[in-house]
């Protein structure tokens, strides 16, 4: 399909890509180039980021070993969110994902707000991650200017997203493989140190370190609660697997498999890694700003550990930026197809890629790198802080849309999903309440409060732009009946 042939909406090109049961196209003109292997690793990689490799140091210093409990509870919430998303995806697998579900079950405004908010989330995240990646390069070579590395990374990742979705998936596969290998390696080495007593840490390494230094909850439950926003930030992007629905080769099989791996991913890569690290090194020796993985490697006596972790964090940052370029193009196209964004972004390239949206987003990421180079101080920090609250907005929309869908499905108004969320709707209500608690804690925490200051400003921009666009094009914001196939409507 060429850019000239792309339809302004899925309804105008019925049957070309197969339909999902609701009459809408499941692939929406995209090429289904993401296989099971790639979807699985995208799902794994989405749950492992710099929040674990770097952010855990600050959280450990606040909560001690009880951080393990915080990750376990937050992991349960993430699983509830992902199963809610999974039920929606099996009801109607579309690349617009939660933006499209918000549009269907909450109304056109909510789809509009979710699409643009999630787009901005990834643009901001891409800016921060590509800049972070450039700083990691300086660990090996201080002579390379930061802006040069940032520019090179942005261009290379843009070209990857320009070629094919299969190449994007392959790159994400190997990025994720690096992170997975590093964590599993750390766990195996740590178990060896604890059980066999070898290395410099062999004499002090013990599972007793989890409770022998002022207890499992050394600073009180309040300190543990205050780490929840750090913990939840580490899980941001886990929902990215939903955006791949329109390009997965067999979404009915691959997506449920990927979502069902969430519990063991969290158990191994977060809880398991923390249990081992805090057993090898007492929590009192960790400090904010330093990677607990680096500290653990140093304690074991592996001087190369810092370089290994730096390479892993570099791949984590590049993976996040790569995902950002992928998702922003799809979100812009979804908005364009629904008349809630410039029609310019609706076009697909000959390879079935949303080239225009990806190019626009990548250009903004380059501007962000320049801003960070010119003004690396507090003003840029304010912009970056928006990422947390905007990412959680997507989770909130997933849960609310799921509650609305389940209510209508129970009444027989909609077909039941082939992948129902266990315990729903109570699990979705639990997850919503938990996210509400995290937002309250963010308001209490002085360091995280800036995120909440950004939200009203963005909300005002979205609302005003919505009113303007609705006045110019009322049909784009009219409610649709998704229960009636688009082909029947056209007839």
Automatic annotation (TrEMBL):
InterPro entries: AA-permease/SLC12A_dom (IPR004841), Amino_acid_permease_CS (IPR004840). PROSITE patterns: AMINO_ACID_PERMEASE_1. It comes from Streptomyces gamaensis. It is a multi-pass membrane protein. It comes from the Bacteria. It is found in: Cell membrane. Residues 1-29 are annotated as: Disordered. Residues 39-473 form the Amino acid permease/ SLC12A domain. This is Amino acid permease. Keywords: Amino-acid transport, Cell membrane, Membrane, Transmembrane, Transmembrane helix, Transport. Gene3D superfamilies: Amino acid/polyamine transporter I. The chain crosses the membrane at residues 41-60, 66-85, 105-127, 147-168, 180-199, 219-241, 262-284, 296-321, 353-373, 379-403, 424-444, 450-469.
């Amino acid at each position: 399909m060429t850019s000239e042939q792309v339809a302004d909406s899925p309804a105008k090109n019925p049957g070309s890509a197969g339909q999902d049961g609701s009459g809408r196209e499941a692939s929406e003109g995209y090429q289904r180039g993401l296989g099971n292997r790639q979807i699985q690793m995208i799902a794994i990689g989405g749950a492992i980021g710099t929040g674990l490799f770097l952010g855990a140091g600050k959280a450990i210093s606040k909560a001690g070993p009880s951080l393990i409990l915080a990750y376990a509870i937050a992991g349960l919430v993430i699983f509830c969110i992902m199963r809610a998303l999974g039920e929606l995806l099996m009801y109607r697998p579309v690349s617009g994902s939660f933006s499209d579900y918000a549009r269907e079950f909450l109304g056109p405004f909510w789809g509009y707000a979710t699409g643009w908010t999630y787009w901005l989330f990834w643009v901001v995240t891409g800016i921060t991650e590509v800049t972070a990646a450039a700083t990691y390069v300086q660990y090996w070579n201080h002579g390379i200017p930061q802006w040069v590395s940032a520019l090179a990374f942005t261009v290379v990742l843009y070209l990857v997203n320009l070629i094919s979705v299969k190449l994007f998936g392959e790159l994400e596969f190997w990025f994720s493989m690096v992170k997975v290998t590093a964590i599993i390696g750390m766990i195996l080495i740590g178990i060896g140190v604890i059980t066999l007593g070898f290395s410099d840490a062999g004499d002090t390494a013990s599972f007793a370190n989890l409770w022998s230094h002022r207890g499992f909850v050394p600073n009180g439950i309040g300190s543990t609660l205050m780490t929840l926003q750090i913990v939840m930030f580490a899980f941001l992007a886990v929902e990215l697997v939903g955006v791949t629905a329109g390009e997965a080769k067999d979404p009915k099989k691959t997506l449920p498999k990927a979502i069902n791996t969430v519990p063991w991913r969290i158990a191994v890569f977060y809880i398991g890694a923390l249990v081992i690290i805090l057993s090898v090194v007492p929590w009192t020796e960790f400090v904010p700003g330093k990677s607990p993985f680096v500290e653990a490697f140093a304690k074991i006596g592996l001087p190369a550990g810092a370089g290994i972790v730096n390479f892993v964090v570099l791949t984590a940052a590049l993976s996040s930026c790569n995902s950002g370029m992928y998702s922003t193009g799809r979100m812009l196209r979804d908005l364009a197809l629904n008349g809630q964004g410039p029609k310019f972004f609706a076009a697909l390239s000959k390879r079935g890629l949303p080239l225009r949206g990806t190019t626009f987003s990548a250009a903004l990421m380059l501007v962000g790198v320049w801003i960070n180079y010119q003004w690396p101080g507090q003003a840029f920090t304010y912009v970056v802080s928006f990422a947390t609250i905007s990412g959680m907005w997507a989770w909130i929309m997933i849960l609310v849309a799921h509650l609305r869908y389940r209510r209508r499905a129970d009444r027989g108004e909609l077909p039941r999903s082939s992948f129902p969320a266990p315990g729903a709707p109570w699990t979705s209500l639990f997850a919503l309440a938990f996210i509400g608690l995290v937002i309250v804690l963010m308001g209490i925490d002085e360091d995280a409060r800036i995120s909440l200051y950004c939200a009203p400003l963005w909300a005002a921009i979205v609302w005003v732009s919505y009113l303007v666009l609705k006045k110019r094009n009322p049909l784009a914001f009219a409610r649709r009946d998704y229960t009636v196939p688009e082909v029947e409507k056209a007839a």
